[in-house]
Amino acid sequence: MPNFKINKIYNGDSAELLSNRHIFPNNSVDLIVTSPPYADRRKKQYGGPPPEKYMEWFLPLAIEFQRILKPRGSLILNIKENAGQGERHVYVLELILEMRKMEWFWIEDYIWHKRNVFPGKWPNRFRNAWEHCFHFTKQKDFRMYQDAVKVPIGDWANKRLKNLGANDRKRNMSQTDSGFSVQLTNWVGKRKVYPTNVLYLPTISANKNHCAVFPESLPTWFIKLFTQKGDVVLDPFIGSGTTAVAAIKTGRSFIGIDLSVEYIQVSRRVIREAMKSSKNQSETKPKVRGRINNKKLIITKRKADPAKIKRILKKGGYKNGEPPRGYEVHHIKPLAEGGKDTPKNIRVVKTTKHRQIHKNRRERGEE
Ligand SMILES: C[S@@+](CC[C@H](N)C(=O)[O-])C[C@H]1O[C@@H](n2cnc3c(N)ncnc32)[C@H](O)[C@@H]1O
After folding, report:
1. Which of 64, 100, 231, 241 could cysteine-pair with 30, CB 3.0–4.6 Å?
2. Where are the domains positioned within the chain?
3. Which residues on adjacent β-strands are paired with residue 329?
4. Which ligand 1 atom is the nearest neighbour of the CA of 240?
5. What distances in angstroms separate CA 108 from CA 39, 113, 361, one per listed residue?
6. Ligand 1: distance of its center to the CA of 340 in Å?
7. 17 within ligand 1 shell (Cβ under 6 A)
């Protein structure tokens, strides 16, 4: 019987711990999001293998990631090749090629554009203001919830979409000869659109107890894009616990590993605080929002229990206790009105139908 424990931080070497199938069974986590030590960086704090040995160090980890990740799960690697002796190292490029040989699919290179880097001067290049976030998967059919990361369409739409000419009403090829085509009428009435693959995020975060933290918004974005509530997120180099905090705040479970006892202590503290504040939020008193037929309409803060829903779906014959692609779980009687996570109250419906049901409810002022 595997000893798979969620919401836990392990102290030790990732390669060693992850190879323990008793603790980390096959196909058990939905997302791995991590920032591994870069080659030879932060020697004083936690070290990192030399660039020429990076591959040797990383590939056994990549094998375990592949084993532990669920078939439709994703791996996000935040990394940046540092420079040495006047040029950039190539170990990150080699790593992509090696991982493809191991039958990982390299889906995308998201760019984390660091919004607030300090100025600086180097003799042969400029200050670095971005890092890779490589997206790898085990198969081409992976889970991705693009609507969860939509962004406001932006001010350009107010002006441009107000005065559409005859040409804007048909599909036009881009004037830059890029081969892309656009039809502006598609955007009319839209408030939110899909983002690009560049994430404009600050460098610093509220957590200052680690020398190489990423901002909480970074794991949060990928957690929303590739998982749903109740899913399990693993960070094998968790440092000060940023990924765990992001998972807690988005209603996911986490598992973390770090070699440093000092960082483990920091992460356990920030995790305790995040759990406490998310518990406080879910226990806030019900709000009276209005009256329907002279009855108080009470909006409770009750949340769905993802683990219970998974069990119900599994019993109902859904693989891994998850709705198929393009479908979602719907509560017939909403939780806010006392509905519960029971087989009778749960239906798996098409995402489009689900959206329509809630749109209708909002129009009727019921939510
Ligand atoms: C770039 S930092 C991660 C920082 C983290 N994303 C955060 O926001 O705090 C890399 C972390 O990997 C840890 N580490 C280095 N080698 C390790 C190993 N072999 N196994 C587990 N953790 C390791 C370091 O202690 C460090 O905290």
Report:
1. 231
2. 8-148+195-283, 153-191, 288-363
3. 348
4. 9
5. 22, 15, 37
6. 40
7. no
